[in-house]
């Protein structure tokens, strides 16, 4: 089924089932967006109950908007909480100051989500933050899904992401994070989302995203050589 013209609700089963089919026979699966609404369906396709799954988001935003208006790219994490994904099995990395409502920060706090802002990433380093997130979830869940929302990059590196802001991550840092995910045995699927190539400048955003994909694949290969 073609999903490009479908609503997130209508596309849910097709994406979930496609991911589940490939997860069952592959070392890892990559979903290419499209927008962030595919994260919910991807998590459901991991092949394990949500209470045994973990989610890591690299994103400038919480994606915890209300569900009152239906599913969209601003609420996949809120939808997953409603579906039964435990909040303490979610780690959100790269949240930007002045780009998120305090109301959504409160939702994250009450749900028990671990939140690491860009200030935290700058202080501790993305590699260490990513290693800690993978290590923590890896001891508590069977399968991990990682959402790479490319608007987590600094806007200078992501002109094709309408939601990107100054002060975000660098492409090199995001590549290293992708490699760590690929090398980790609990990571069964990732997505790379929120790019509008028609807005790009000198292909800088799509090349950064492609590098993330290649680094993830390199990490998966490393995983199987160990």
SSE order and pairing:
Elements: H1 8-23, E1 29-32, H2 38-44, E2 53-58, H3 76-83, E3 90-95, H4 102-111, E4 114-117, H5 118-124, H6 126-138, E5 143-149, H7 171-183, E6 187-193, H8 204-225
Parallel strand pairs: 1-6, 2-3, 2-5, 3-4, 5-6
CATH homologous superfamily (4th level) name: Ureohydrolase domain
Strand order of the largest sheet: 1-6-5-2-3-4
Shape: globular
- Radius of gyration, in Å, reads 16 Å
Q: How many strands in all? A: 6
Structural class: alpha/beta
Beta-strand residue percentage: 15-25%
Report the oligomer: single chain
- The number of distinct helices, counting runs of at least 4 residues, comes to 8
Order of helices and strands: HEHEHEHEHHEHEH
Proportion in helices: 40-55%
What CATH architecture would you give?
3-Layer(aba) Sandwich
**Name of the top-level CATH class:** Alpha Beta
**What is the number of independent domains?**
1
What is the first-to-last residue Cα distance? 38 Å
CATH topology: Arginase, Chain A
Describe the overall structure.
The chain has 226 residues and is an alpha/beta fold. It has one domain: Arginase, Chain A (3-Layer(aba) Sandwich), CATH 3.40.800. It has 8 helices and 6 strands. Helix 3 links the parallel strand 2 and strand 3. Helix 1 (8-23) packs parallel to helix 2 (38-44) and helix 5 (118-124) crosses helix 6. The radius of gyration is 16 Å and the shape is globular. The mean pLDDT is 96.
Keyphrases for this structure?
226 residues, Arginase, Chain A, 6-stranded parallel sheet, globular, alpha/beta
């Amino acid at each position: 089924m073609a999903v490009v013209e479908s609503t997130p609700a209508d596309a849910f089963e097709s994406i979930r089932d496609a991911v589940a089919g490939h997860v069952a026979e592959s070392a890892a699966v990559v979903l290419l967006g499209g927008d962030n609404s595919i994260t919910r369906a991807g998590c459901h396709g991991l092949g394990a109950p949500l209470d045994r799954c973990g989610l890591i988001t690299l994103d400038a935003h919480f994606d915890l908007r209300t569900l009152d208006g239906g599913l969209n790219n601003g609420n996949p994490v809120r939808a997953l909480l409603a579906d039964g994904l435990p909040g303490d099995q979610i780690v959100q990395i790269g949240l930007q100051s002045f780009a998120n409502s305090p109301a959504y920060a409160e939702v994250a706090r009450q749900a028990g989500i671990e939140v690491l802002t860009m200030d935290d990433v700058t202080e501790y380093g993305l590699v260490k933050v990513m290693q800690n997130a993978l290590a923590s979830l890896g001891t508590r869940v069977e399968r991990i899904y990682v959402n790479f929302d490319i608007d987590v990059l600094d806007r200078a590196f992501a002109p094709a992401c309408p939601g990107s802001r100054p002060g975000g991550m660098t492409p090199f840092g995001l590549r290293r994070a992708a490699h760590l995910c690929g090398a980790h045995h609990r990571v069964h699927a990732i997505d790379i989302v929120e790019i509008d190539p028609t807005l790009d400048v000198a292909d800088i955003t799509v090349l950064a995203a492609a590098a993330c994909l290649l680094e993830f694949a390199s990490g998966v290969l490393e995983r199987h050589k160990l």
